[in-house]
UniProtKB/TrEMBL annotation:
This is Putative ATPase. GO terms for cellular component: cytoplasm. GO terms for molecular function: ATP binding; ATP hydrolysis activity. Keywords: ATP-binding, Nucleotide-binding. Transmembrane segments: none annotated. The lineage of its organism: Bacteria, Bacillati, Actinomycetota, Actinomycetes, Pseudonocardiales. SUPFAM superfamilies: P-loop containing nucleoside triphosphate hydrolases. InterPro entries: ATPase_AFG1-like (IPR005654), P-loop_NTPase (IPR027417). Signal peptide: none annotated. PANTHER family: AFG1-LIKE ATPASE, ATPASE N2B.
């Protein structure tokens, strides 16, 4: 048996750590605007790089927070341009790459987190304390911005209003209900009055193109047998092996903001007995879990059902379609990575 199971881990994050740990995930440590390769067939991608780079220059010039641009231009003087930049587009077009590149291009203090992590910070610290800790930042970067929950929408609207009034710039990528927002739009009928003031703070940048993870690549690798999966876990140092149902139960006991710490330091994740998600709550937890695996470039191997079968046709036809397709895309990339590493390891003289 492998040395560890994810179900044996109980990650905790102390409140005082929450803001200091808001940085891009390891996969994006080395990304920069110069490492983003625009698709020549999609002009919006090169335009997005230029717009993000210009926004980063403006943020860097600002000096950060109320002590920055207000000190430069006088209290109450507006900044040139809107304080927010919103990257909108399909999954797999490099929006997170651009957001992390923007974060790296700006001097601190700055923070980077997912929408879920940001709401968790506010819940753990309290609204006033969260505003106090973040209001001196130059930039707040928010990945996977969501508008599918009225309570969270109102909370973040208020938070961003307070922060932008204090001089903080905000950049975000979209991860929203397509039937609520519409393709390429930053609006939602159900929450329109609440988000009108929020959307007015953002310049929207469209990033078009196909999912780069699927360009010319095959379907997800076939599931392993249980015996092959156990043998792989035993031979792969630092890997974990869990029963899929047990892991799903474990994820339900943890706030999604802890999923990243749950898999920190893991070399590869092996899941035995994968099956389609039976309900939406589980499906959304699996989406968050897949995102954190992808952030950390952790290979995934499974037995049971294919990763492409995690979300059934009814789920893929519903409002969370974009999230489910992104999760399948990312898990497929991680499964291919696992296959590739094992193939190279089995080939004499092949590089590791």
């Amino acid at each position: 048996m492998p040395t560890e199971q994810l179900t044996a881990r109980r990650p905790e994050i102390a409140p005082e750590e929450l803001v200091s740990t808001l940085v891009p995930p390891p996969r994006f440590d080395g990304v920069r605007f110069s490492t983003y390769v625009p698709n020549p067939a999609e002009p919006s991608q090169a335009d997005a790089v230029a717009t993000c780079s210009a926004f980063a220059e403006r943020v860097g010039f600002s000096g950060g927070g109320a002590r920055g641009w207000r000190a430069l231009f006088g209290r109450g003087s507006p900044r040139q341009g809107r304080p927010g930049l919103y990257l909108d587009g399909g999954f797999g077009v490099g929006k997170t790459h651009l957001l992390a590149s923007l974060w790296h291009a700006v001097p601190g203090p700055k923070a980077y987190g997912t929408f879920v992590e940001l709401t968790h910070v506010v819940g753990a610290l309290g609204f006033g304390e969260a505003v106090r800790r973040l209001s001196g930042h130059r930039l707040l970067a928010i990945d996977e911005f969501e508008l599918d929950d009225p309570g969270d929408t109102m909370l973040v609207n208020r938070l961003l209003r307070e922060l932008t009034d204090a001089g903080v710039y905000v950049a975000a990528t979209s991860n929203t209900l397509p039937d609520k927002l519409g393709e390429g739009r930053f609006a939602a009928d159900d929450f329109l009055r609440e988000i009108q003031s929020l959307s007015a703070k953002f310049d929207v940048v469209r990033v078009d193109g196909p999912d780069y993870r699927h360009r010319g690549l095959p379907e997800p690798p076939a599931p392993r047998t249980d015996d092959d999966l156990a043998a792989s876990a035993l031979a792969w140092p630092g890997s974990t092996l869990d029963d899929f149902d047990a892991l799903c139960d474990h994820l339900a006991t943890l706030h999604p903001s802890r999923y990243g710490r749950l898999v920190d330091g893991v070399a590869a994740v092996h899941l035995r007995g994968v099956r389609p998600a039976g309900d939406q709550a589980l499906a959304l937890r699996l989406v968050a879990f897949a995102d954190r695996l992808y952030d950390r470039a952790i290979p995934v191997l499974v037995s049971g059902a294919s990763l492409g079968e995690l979300f059934d046709e009814d789920m893929l036809a519903g409002g969370y379609r974009k999230k489910y397709l992104r999760a399948v895309s990312r898990l497929t990339a991680l499964a291919r990575d696992a296959e590739g590493r094992q193939t190279r390891a089995a080939s004499p003289g092949a590089p590791a």
